[in-house]
Design goal:
The model has no long low-confidence stretch (mean pLDDT 94). The protein has 14 helices and 36 strands. The chain is globular. It folds into three domains: 241 residues, Distorted Sandwich (Beta-galactosidase, Chain A, domain 5); 266 residues, Aldolase class I (TIM Barrel), CATH 3.20.20.70; 93 residues, Immunoglobulin-like (Sandwich), CATH 2.60.40. It is an alpha+beta fold. Helices cover 21% and strands 29% of the residues. Bound molecules: alpha-D-galactopyranose.
Length: 735
């Protein structure tokens, strides 16, 4: 619930277990007061009356912004990191000649003007595909208008509260009420004030094939920034953090703040840790090479910074984000199907007969979605050529795609196809016809990465052309699924859109996805960018699942998937079983280990099925059948990380349905030190008095125990051994 007290001019945002309070001070500035847990016995009437007097007394001449403005803007006496910096070209009427040299005016002063509480205001770049999410209940949104006293600028701070998950989305709206353009030089979606010395930051970094590496560190006084400078989210960092006071949070306890951006382009989350102990977080557009020209009477609405606070440690924070993504972000679809992707089986050496043969084998083992990857179109026989030419290659499919699609459908599977819509190979018809359609600086080299250039989505005609090309294929064929790839970073970002390309590209991609989904309502989309390079809440709002990493080595995946689980739900995490000897790492892993790890998300198969003998094919089918039995728990349940890699060299997780009636327990050991003994790990989220039957893949009853026993002592006998050991168990409560 959102409350406003007109006497003290205090705003209180009450979630189920957290509160957020701010106040208009004596100077008409909107200042932050508190953000944290609510006492458990507090009811809706318990709100703060504010503390104007204290704040007034707290000012010193050097630290004016000790007052913690809700939106930190460059102006007044600010010297700290800011969320907003604007240059105003208009000059006051009475200006001496010398003073004209003092321009443009870079001084934003935000003063309270008005507020309203509305239902379900929307942040920028929201999905336009019109598909429902699991929960579409409207949510209260507080909109507070702040105005500069003399410049033609109104900034509306928006807070949309999702009370059932204690999460709120924050964004800002910038309105230029004047007659000249305003130049926005820096723009975050929000600034957050964390309690003093909340300096232990958990974040994610990585690279191709090594995504989602976790990092936990205590940041020193100064500025620490996470970010990526391209037109996709990036492998190098993910727009997500958790923060706690050093040493005061653990997996299942301790106060943890968290935030993530619903945006898939050049982003930054900066932490400004000040000597005073203040920690401010600024999340939004990356300020590097940033420019936003706000035309007269124009409004810019930023995407959302999704934030929350949780008393149940890092695990509790992850669960809130997972539920929020499942229920409020991802388009509503049935549980994700078991997928087969032929990429690692055939790479570019594909043909119609070969794909048909793979499809038959895939269907026989229980696969539900058959995906043809790269190489089916234009002159794309290697990665040197063909990107941009989105028509079915008669070299690969002399009879067209339809016979394969028909076969796949007759086999009872859905059909999926790979696209990389934003790219072009110089060796392609598209590039030969439109060499000016790529990002480049005139007269400068066009540097290729993976032999490809990036299309200029600042040009409307380019986005329209790509829409028509993909739409034509989707209209001519019965295609259920697109794997949407994006295989290079942007360098040399010259565009007809100027510096606005950093945002225009993302808007173009979102628009394409939304339009395609709107027109082809049964279409699902998987986001891929050289593996996990484009995963964020903006992308999850228009896709159904994401490709976590091109690294399909089961033991590497243990780590990658644990990092993924910090922020994103298992339902969206596509994970494949591939060959016994991994193509990238050369490491050999048991089939059961490969399945146990892959079954922690949306299961896929990427092996060359032609290389498997009858016994192996049967074993695949056995695992897939088991996955189908447990997947509703994996994809819809709450995730508890029982053992984490950094502590135990192993990961054990359990997924539990919200009523505690069913659970899945999964353990996988990455490293084992001889002589080291791991005791069984107590489970979480079960019902103490319920009796659980615990069965393995063959429905063999491993044990029958109460929830209390399981949550206190774990599964007896589960003392875990050597590297590569793994197992998955299904728990069902009686009755
Ligand atoms: C990227 C993807 C792979 C595969 C290839 C195809 O690397 O991450 O999964 O689709 O492109 O070229």
């Amino acid at each position: 619930m959102i409350h406003y007290n007109p006497e003290t001019r205090t705003f209180s945002l009450n979630g189920r277990s957290s509160q957020y309070t701010m106040q208009v001070d004596y100077n008409e500035r909107l200042v932050h007061i508190s953000w944290g847990p609510r006492p458990k016995d507090a009811d809706e009437t318990a709100v703060l009356s504010g503390n104007n007097r204290f704040m007034a007394a707290g000012f010193t001449s050097f630290e004016f912004q000790g007052s913690k403005d809700e939106l930190l803007a460059y102006g007044d006496t600010t010297m700290h990191e800011v969320a907003l910096k604007i240059a105003f070209p208009d000059l006051p009427a009475s200006l001496t000649e010398a003073e004209t040299l003092h321009t443009p005016i870079r001084d934003v002063r935000l003063r309270y003007k008005s507020h309203e509480i509305v239902m379900d205001a929307q942040p920028g770049l929201l999905p336009l595909h019109g598909l429902p999410t699991q929960n579409n209940e409207p949510r209260e949104t507080l909109r507070i208008q702040l105005q500069d006293p003399t410049q033609p600028l109104t900034v509306t701070l928006c807070y949309r509260l999702t009370p059932e998950h204690d999460i709120f989305e924050r964004w800002i709206e910038l309105y230029n009420s004047g007659d000249s353009a305003l130049f926005v030089e820096q723009c975050s979606f929000a600034s957050l004030h964390l309690p003093s010395r909340t300096t232990e930051i958990t974040s994610i970094h990585g690279s191709w094939a090594a995504e989602f590496t976790q990092q936990r560190q205590i940041i020193p006084v100064g500025t620490f920034a996470l970010g990526h400078r391209s037109v996709q989210t990036g492998h190098s960092s993910n727009p997500f953090f958790m923060a706690n006071r050093p040493g005061q949070a653990w997996e299942e306890s301790g106060l943890v703040y968290f935030g993530t951006l619903a945006f898939s382009g050049a982003w930054q989350i900066a932490f400004d840790h000040q000597h005073s102990g203040d920690v401010r977080v600024l999340g939004g557009y990356n300020p590097f090479d940033f420019e936003l020209v706000l035309a007269p009477k124009e409004t810019h609405v930023t995407p959302a910074f999704v934030c929350g606070v949780c008393e149940n440690g890092w695990g509790g924070a992850s669960r809130r984000l997972h539920r929020f993504a499942r229920e409020r972000v991802l388009p509503e679809t049935p549980t994700r199907p078991v997928l087969y992707n032929s990429w690692e089986a055939t790479y570019f050496d594909l043909n119609a007969d070969g794909q048909m043969a793979l499809a038959r084998k895939a269907a026989a083992m229980g696969v539900e979605l058959f995906v043809v990857d790269d190489g089916w179109f234009g002159g794309r026989r290697t990665d040197f050529a063909g990107l941009g030419d989105w028509w079915v290659s008669s070299d690969v499919f002399p009879e067209g795609l339809q016979p394969l699609i028909d076969e796949v459908h007759q086999l009872g599977m859905q059909f999926g196809l790979w696209f990389e819509p934003e790219m072009v190979n110089p060796d392609s018809d598209l590039y030969r016809q439109h060499p000016d359609w790529v990002l480049h600086f005139p007269g400068r080299p066009r540097t290729e990465a993976r032999f490809q250039l990036v299309l200029d989505f600042g040009r409307e005609e380019v986005v329209d052309y790509i829409f028509t090309a993909i739409d034509t294929i989707l209209s001519q064929h019965d295609i259920d699924f697109i794997k949407w790839d994006m295989n290079r970073n942007v360098t040399e970002p010259g565009s007809v859109a100027g510096k606005a390309i950093w945002r225009a590209h993302v808007a173009g991609v979102y628009q394409l996805m939304d339009k395609l989904r709107q027109k082809h309502s049964k279409l699902s989309i998987q986001s891929c960018s050289g593996g996990g390079g484009r995963i964020d809440l903006g992308m999850l709002a228009r896709t159904d699942q994401v490709w976590t990493s091109d690294n399909t080595d089961a033991l590497d995946r243990i780590r990658i998937q644990e990092g993924f689980s910090l922020a994103y739900p298992a339902r969206a995490m596509e994970s494949w079983v591939t060959h016994e000897k991994n193509h990238q790492t050369g490491r050999i892993a048991e089939l059961s280990t490969r399945f146990d790890v892959a079954m922690r998300g949306a299961l896929g198969i990427g092996s060359n099925l032609n290389e498997l003998d009858a016994a192996e094919l049967k074993d695949y089918a056995r695992h897939i059948a088991f996955y189908k039995k447990i997947r509703h728990v994996v994809q819809e349940g709450d995730l508890y990380r029982l053992a984490r890699l950094e502590e135990d060299g192993t990961t054990a997780v359990c997924y539990v349905l919200s009523d505690g009636s069913e659970a899945v327990y999964s353990v996988a050991v990455k490293d084992h030190v001889l002589g080291f003994y791991r005791s069984p790990m107590p489970l979480h989220g079960l019902v103490s008095h319920a009796i659980y039957t615990i069965t393995d893949i063959d429905a063999y009853e491993v044990a029958r125990l109460t929830g209390y026993e399981l949550m206190v002592q774990g599964i007896p006998g589960d003392a875990i051994g050597t590297a590569g050991y793994s197992r998955t168990l299904y728990l069902k409560a009686a009755g």
